Amino acid sequence: MLPNIQEFLATLQDFTSSLPDVLQWLGVFLIAAIPFVESYFGSAIGVLAGVPPVIAVAAAVIGNLLSMLIFVLTAHGVRTRATQGREAKPLTPRRAKLKERFDRYGVPGVSLLGQLFLPSQITSAAMVSFGASKNQVIFWQVISIILWGVLFGVLATLGISALGFEAAPQG
User: Residue 56 in contact with residue 46, Cβ under 8 Å?
Assistant: First the structure.
């Protein structure tokens, strides 16, 4: 099975290297903006595809950050309009479970560990909808997205090396 993976990676990296640099970066940026792909899988996909690791991580982080900001700012606007002069509605069981975790771990804990369970876009929007400070959520999500992106970029680079490939040169 290993030769098939090596052949697949070689083909993928050849294809990627045939594209202009800006399209390589844009591809990683766009894929990382997708919930559940995020900076961590975006970084890994970029590295596996042959994008230089530093560029893959940076593009994935920026794509995920932009997507998360859209979700947070939208949730903040909706919450502001929805709660003006109104009583809070009861939470669904799923939102109640998320709120319980939010209450237990706070914005830093949910931001850093929440990506193990849900995308940053969903957890960040949920935290804002629970009344967390928009700026605090953004701050901790930025830290989380960078950490997860770097971690998976490094793991993908090490995995490529373990398979006998050279990681794409940085720069």
Answer: yes
